[in-house]
Every structure is written in structure tokens, then in C-alpha cells.
């Protein structure tokens, strides 16, 4: 009798399985043993594709970044392009918040992350931003997007009104924030983005022609 045919193990299958674990249980859930079990293979077979666990997590992070839409930089002015890109980036990371700590270390050698950084930086240079300022803007936008995806501000407050009643009178409505999580968290991100872009719009004419 012929042996049952095993599904071919590929990098893509490993990344998809690892991504599902990260989304469901967090980064700590990913191990070669756990992945091998999920994929129905022997642990050592994973090493033919990824020598280390960190390389698997890098691939998961890059697969997430690859979903961010950067097409606006080819069709819009720099400020509108930054807005559209930041909103796409924010939405992607909010759907996969557990991967943010990996992204926080920077792009490293991850192809999608480097391609995104190259696109953003190049568009800013083309718009007239000096190289140093273009670098600052890229870092600033990353801080804004990553920070907004790490956790909910609204859900950080206890829902028991008794916690605030006497000792924290200015927070007497804080127990209601969780009910309005989406409007609070998304409103905060949009306000931050509006503020940053408005400030940059005023700054650009003052920096054109300079090197910093």
C-alpha cells in the first residue's frame, strides 16, 4: 500500500502557521516544536527553511508589512500620500498588534519593510525635504503608527466607577471609555496624524534648500 502523500512543507506554510499563532496567542507561543506540531512535520524539517525562530518571526513581520498600501506615493502629493499610507499601516497593524514588538526593532534585512522605507523616504526627498528631515519624518510616522497599534487607550481604564469617585474626580467618566473604544482610539490616532501633517506642511517651506 502506498504511503499517504504528505503536504509539501514550504516557507509560506511555515509563515502562515506562525502568523496564526502570533495573532491568536502572541509571540511567545511560537517555537519550532509548536510549529512542527501545527504543521504535522518533524521539528528539524523547519530548519531547512528557517535556521532560527527569530528568522521565522522576521518573516511573519515582513508578511504583515507587505499588506501596507504604499501606492499613494506614486499618485498623490507628499502630505496626502503620508496620510493614506499611515492609515493603511495603522489598519494593518491594528489587525495584527502582536507583531508590533518585532517591527519596533526596525526593518533589519526584511525585504517588504525595506521597500516600504525606501518608498517613503524617496517620496519625501522628491518633495523637497532635506535628507535629515526626511529621516526624522519616517521615524516620527513609525512612532505614531506603532504606538497607536500597541494597545487600546480606552480599555486601559477600569470599568468600575467606584475606582474614581473620590480620589480621582477628574476621571469620574473614565469607566465609560471602554464603551467607546473605537471612537476614542481612532479619534486619537486621527488627531495625532492631522496635527503632525499640519505641522509638517508649515515646516517644509522653511527647510527647503537646507541640508538638515
UniProtKB/TrEMBL annotation:
The keyword DNA-binding applies. Residues 8-68 form the HTH tetR-type domain. Keywords: DNA-binding, Repressor, Transcription, Transcription regulation. Residues 31-50 bind DNA. It comes from the Bacteria. One of its GO terms (molecular function) is transcription cis-regulatory region binding. It comes from Krasilnikovia cinnamomea. The keyword Repressor applies. It holds the Pfam family TetR_N. GO terms for biological process: negative regulation of DNA-templated transcription; response to antibiotic. This is TetR family transcriptional regulator.
